[in-house]
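Q: How would the structure tokens look for this protein?
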Amino acid sequence: MMKLKKTAALLATIVVMGAKSIYAQQLTKAQNQELLKAGQGAIVKLEGFLTEKTAQIPYQKYPTPGPQYIISDDPEYIRVPEAIALRENVVPGSVRFYLYNVNGVVEPQKMDRKIIAMIKNTGKGPMRIKMLKYVSQKPSTNYFKLGKEGLASFLSAEPNEVVRTLKPGEAVPIDEKLDQYVVKYDELVHGFYEFLIDQPAEITVLQTDLKTSGKDALKRIGNVLPPKSKSGAGRGLYGVSNYHVQNTDVIDTKNGTTTLTVADGITDPWVIGREGTTGQQSKLAGNYGVMYEVELKWKSSDGRGLALVTWNSRSGNSKWCSGMAASMKVSEGKFKDGVIQLPKDVLVTKGAPEAILVQVFTPSKPGEEQTIRLTYSPPGASCLPTPLIFVPVDLKP
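A: Here is the predicted structure in token form.
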């Protein structure tokens, strides 16, 4: 996955108001109309408008009850023909598991592989597994597509009523399709899984040949690859899987453009966990798979609406940051509430002056407070952060 990079400072006009620095940004009339005409998820070009120097929305953030969280993304590229890339133990309860691994074998030659996530009942009694959210995707070299569509599907997923039962000591693939997929060189295996179990369990991600089942590979593979490789966001078991975010100052359209930035590793630090095979502390660089439930209070003192846009603020950092694709759940505004892929009609947005329109919120009574609700998770395969920009817009044609 792409990690946070430092960016060069951008020039902006600064107006100092108390302890805050507000960067003057003004839509042209043409840009205002382009935002109003655009469809949800569409790319709108805002020449000279997008900057990382926009005034930040101050917020409070706290963890909320959620599942045990496991991510497998270190090593991101599994370069050994047969090996274990992750092994973690979980207790009875809910588990969120994010699978993000690539067939990186080049020695002795490039070869087709399987990458399979296994779950083993380590308890003394039968273990029942019920999927709460389940997203399965075919391996692909189109990482942006997998990241965007996988997150959208996860946000929209409904519980599966099927319950599987495992005997003590029995192991099965978490996703049975993974045991059937052929993973070619450089293809990403990407999946979101959230499930309930009633016995302790062991989660293992392994790479093996096409003829060997996940069960047989689990029995014979002894080597677990070390963490802290040169690629990948991290791996391990994390106690934080959900955050609640709320603004401390009400957004008012009269104050101009403001930005909410989470998952930047600075104002919003990376979550900390433990790596199961070494017992060492692990850090999830990117907070990928963590769900942010956002509630923002806003009002319109000047009668304007509020457009929410996002953009690829890291496009100038490296070739790895040349595109961004995301998905979010957003509350009702001009468009109905629900999950939206960003951008909607093309795979990625490249960078400034491209902005993606997420929603347009309309005021009710002058000065009356309203609430914007978002479900955001850092998009896999994209560089972070992906700022959420709230732009006052004149709703009159």
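The two ends are 42 Å apart (CA to CA).

Helices lie at 29-37, 143-156, 214-220.

Upvote if useful.
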